[in-house]
């Protein structure tokens, strides 16, 4: 099976969880890094069904939407829990990660710095704080249910898309590169912090991320 992930060479979580899942499972894939401004042309020629990225070409057939692509990659990689409920809980967390991202996405299009910061500060004080609380409680419940056997992973006792998606989202929020979003935002959330640190310390993930440092 020929797999080509279409996304810029940038470790944003939407693409990164797909790349990481394939990498962790030893599934070969290629990457195509579209130029800035190329999306309309790629939509016109049928490569991007909804005009958005990421898209995974599977033997030339475009698969869109982060959740669907990530689940497909995780299935190929053997990272999806066998228990259907746990597999669905993983999907749930990936979708929740998308919801949080969607809160911030409109602010990316605000060109005026002061306005962008104001919009993000309102999110940080309101909906973003509420969503981080929800994610922290969800992670806390999953970690408590997994117990010591879970080895610090949310579901199934091994790394899944749920851990990778949360880590990727938190890495973005903690980076200090989003004007108006303090890098300390996650500090009051112990379960999110635990998941973040568990993934960040996972050697195969560290090895993969070093590719962006060169
Ligand atoms: N619902 C899509 C949203 C993807 C999305 O918003 N991607 C951004 C880049 S991270 C994009 O394509 N933006 C350009 C646009 O929406 O026109 C998904 O879950 O994959």
How are the SSEs ordered, and which strands pair?
Blueprint: E1 3-6, H1 13-24, E2 30-32, H2 39-44, E3 55-58, E4 61-64, H3 66-77, H4 84-108, H5 113-125, H6 127-146, H7 161-174, H8 190-200, H9 203-209
Parallel strand pairs: 1-2
Antiparallel strand pairs: 1-3, 3-4
The structure holds glutathione.
Characterise the protein shown here:
The protein has helices spanning about 15-25, 40-45, 65-75, 85-110, 115-125, 125-145, 160-175, 190-200, 205-210; strands at about 5, 30, 55-60, 60-65. The chain is of the alpha+beta class. The chain is about 55% helix and about 5% strand. Helix 4 (about 85-110) packs antiparallel against helix 6. The longest helix is centred in the middle third of the chain and has 25 residues, at about 85-110. It has nine helices and four strands, in the order βαβαββααααααα. The two termini are about 30 Å apart. The protein has two domains: about 5-75, Glutaredoxin, CATH 3.40.30.10; about 85-210, Glutathione S-transferase Yfyf (Class Pi), Chain A, domain 2. A four-stranded mixed sheet has the order 2-1-3-4. The structure holds glutathione (GSH). Glutathione binds next to loops. Glutathione binds near residues 53 and 65.
């Amino acid at each position: 099976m020929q797999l080509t992930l279409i996304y810029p060479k940038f470790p944003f979580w939407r693409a990164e969880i797909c790349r990481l899942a394939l990498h962790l499972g030893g599934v070969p894939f290629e990457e195509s890094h579209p130029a800035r401004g190329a999306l309309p042309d790629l939509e016109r020629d049928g490569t991007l069904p909804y005009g958005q990225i990421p898209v995974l070409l599977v033997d030339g057939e475009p698969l869109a939407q982060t959740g669907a692509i990530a689940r497909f990659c995780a299935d190929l990689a053997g990272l999806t829990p066998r228990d259907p409920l746990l597999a669905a809980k993983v999907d749930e967390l990936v979708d929740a990660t998308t919801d949080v991202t969607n809160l911030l996405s409109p602010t990316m299009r605000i060109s005026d710095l002061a306005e962008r910061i104001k919009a993000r500060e309102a999110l940080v004080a309101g909906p973003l704080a509420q969503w981080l609380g929800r994610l922290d409680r969800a992670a806390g419940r999953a970690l408590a249910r997994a117990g010591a056997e879970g080895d610090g992973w949310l579901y199934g006792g091994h790394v899944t898309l749920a851990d990778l998606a949360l880590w990727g989202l938190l890495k973005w929020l903690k980076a200090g590169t989003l004007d108006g979003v303090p890098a300390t935002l996650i500090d009051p959330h112990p379960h999110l912090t635990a998941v973040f640190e568990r993934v960040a310390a996972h050697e195969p993930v560290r090895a993969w991320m070093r590719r962006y440092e060169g």
